[in-house]
Amino acid sequence: MNDTLVKLIGSSSSFVKEKLKDEVTNNISRIGAEHFWNQGYTGKGVVVAIIDTGCNYHHLDLKDRIIGGYNFTKESNGEVTNFEDLNGHGTHVAGTIAASVNDVGIVGVAPDVSLLILKVLDYRGSGTVDSLVKAIEYAMNWTGPNNERVNVLSLSLGISSSNEILHNTIKQTVSKNIAVVVASGNEGDGDLSTDEYSYPAGYEEVIAVGAMDNNNEVANFTNTNKEVDIYAPGVDIKSTYINKDYANLSGTSMAAPHVTGALALLINKYEDLKNSKPNESELFEYLMQHTTKIQIGDYREMISILNLSLDVSIEDDSNEQFETKLDKSLLLKCFCEARKTQAFFTQCLNEDSTEYERKFLISLIQESASTAMHIKNLCKTI
Q1: Gap between the Cα atoms of 11 and 236, Å rounded
Q2: What pTM does this model have?
Q3: Residues taking part in catalysis
Q4: Which of 94, 129, 245, 268 has the highest CB neighbour count under 10 A?
């Protein structure tokens, strides 16, 4: 297993050195993170373990976010307390998740989250599966200075084939209610009907993340397959970098930390409203409720795009609760309105529509049809 290389998932970079005051970058706005900030949810009290190339822990946007770290590589003579990033990839991931609100640079998705930095990749972006497994086990068993525990793992890395020991470790992690977010990989061909796999993203137990480009299209490099759960911005993402700078990077590595940060915000809100911690399956369900479903071209399945601006009521997250609040006559009225909405969007769809308008309207038609069917099924149970 030591001979199997783990590599980061990233792409080209362009440096940005302007000093801006807490810039809310376009990618952060696109996923709707500000909607949660305005409600007071910023990731405070949540711990994310980033397993990557380490982190520039002197960076002004990150130094206050780091709660601990460990070096699993041979760099720095194997000194376990030195998890400095010599590549830049891990620092970039960290910034997207957690860049602080401090009147400097950018803001991450969850600017008050705590980061546990676990370095498993060297300056070339390479490492072993053995180190990766040890880092995941470390995260599972880690306890912070105030008895904090890891809530989410961020893995913007992958290997080309499945590994049984790695898979079993992932299963054990999820069984402890730690969500595992993984970049889907950059071996895609732009065709959603063909499958490309990387691991651990290919495992059912993880939350696999694909990349969207700036035109809200699936990025032509992103791996696509039935295990990809959610898509997020992954092209020209500005974030923190080495040497106290900022850089624009592209890749599914850049998409995954958006989802990691989103989970921190969702945990905050869930705990506040429910007064309890969500288990991993509840957290995943809550995440998927914060997605927009869209149709891409002629691809038979709809994909889910991260959208934190959606207002989702936790209290109404089960059919049983929903049914007790609505009588059958009201449900029938809702059913009729949903059907009217479906018909209206269908009328709007015509040969003069642009390709973007067609895709958008088709997604609305399908959503309204799905809503009507759901209400119809509820009527049958009352």
Answers
A1: 10
A2: 0.80
A3: 52, 89, 253
A4: 94
